[in-house]
Amino acid sequence: MSESALALIPTYGVWVVFFATFLSCLALPIPSSLIMLASGAFAASGELSISGILIAALVGAVIGDQVGYVFGKAAKTPATRFAMRSPKRAHLFQNAENFLLKRGHWAIFLSRWLISPLGPYINLLAGSLSMPWHWFLIWDILGELVWVAIYTGLGFAFSGYVQSIADMSSSLIGLITALTVAVLLTRRLMRAIKHDPEKI
Amino acid sequence: MSRLWRIAKRHPAESGVLLVALVLVAFFAVRLVFFTLYWSDPAHRNVALEPWMTPRYAAHSWRIPKDDMQALIGADLATEGLTLGEIATQKGLTLQELENQIRALSQTLATQQSSEE
């Protein structure tokens, strides 16, 4: 699938980049990082305009994220009703809401590039937990700027190494994301152990 | 140990996701090591031409003079934004054959290959 997507770039140019980032921000399995790497490389050889790629990728990603946020907002009422039905879930919901309001900007910013697999889901959460839209938008744009700049830049600078960069970066990002989730969950469970009433 | 098990039973969702996350940590760690080894081997780096690349892409990445590349591909095909895969089909070559012809034009690729012999 990656090969066929990349082969579209010489013909359809920045539109491939736009739709790739847009759809991948909606959790569709599109290799958008690879596409941006290749596009950066195509820009280096003069076939695409670098500013065109940067704009298309950024606009596609930000619009995709806003759509996720809106979906989240639309799901807010049914999600809240679902959560309120059990005290434990309501507590978790409240925790998530507090976390998002206090440290949400880090979650948004880092999930654009460093823990990018979580990005689409954080969009939904931000919408359904009513994170203020202007903060969501600002940190989304900043994070996506970093993401677009890194991959397009790497492709531009190292056009002969696009595949190796893609393989290494996807493994590294996957590792960092899984580690982040594991650490966060471990901390939650350790706190549960500390408050465990039945001490042996 | 039994306390861990009790916690897991009381928080099944979080424990389940934690387990999946740990499996993924192991998976991606192995993948990272594998790709580091794979791509540090120069032989793999040299098989660098891909069917989705264009002649201009290959010329830029491996320092092939534009005229040489145009002469090889043919002026009519070179300007159309075709990929190497499409060009190979049009010329009736396999991708490997086209790649070998391009490789012959490149100083960089040629020296990389001869330094391994």
Question: Any key phrases for this structure?
Answer:
heterodimer, A: 200 residues, mainly alpha, 10 helices, elongated, B: 117 residues, 0% strand
Account of the protein in words:
The complex is a heterodimer of chains A (200) and B (117). Chain A has 200 residues and is mainly alpha-helical. In chain A, helix 6 packs across helix 7 (87-113). In chain A, 82% of the residues lie in helices and 0% in strands. By secondary structure, chain B is an all-alpha fold. In chain B, 76% of the residues lie in helices and 0% in strands. Chain B contains 9 helices and no strands. Chain B has helices at 2-10, 12-40, 42-46, 55-61, 66-73, 75-78, 84-91, 95-105, 107-114. In chain B, helix 7 (84-91) packs across helix 8. The longest helix of chain B has 29 residues, at 12-40. At the A-B interface, helix 1, helix 2, helix 4 and helix 10 of A face helix 1, helix 2 and helix 4 of B.
Q: Give, in order, the helices and strands of chain A.
A: HHHHHHHHHH
Number of strands of chain B: 0
Q: Please bin the fraction of helical residues of chain A.
A: over 70%
Mind telling me the C-alpha Rg of chain A? Answer: 19 Å
Which H/E pattern describes the elements of chain B? Answer: HHHHHHHHH
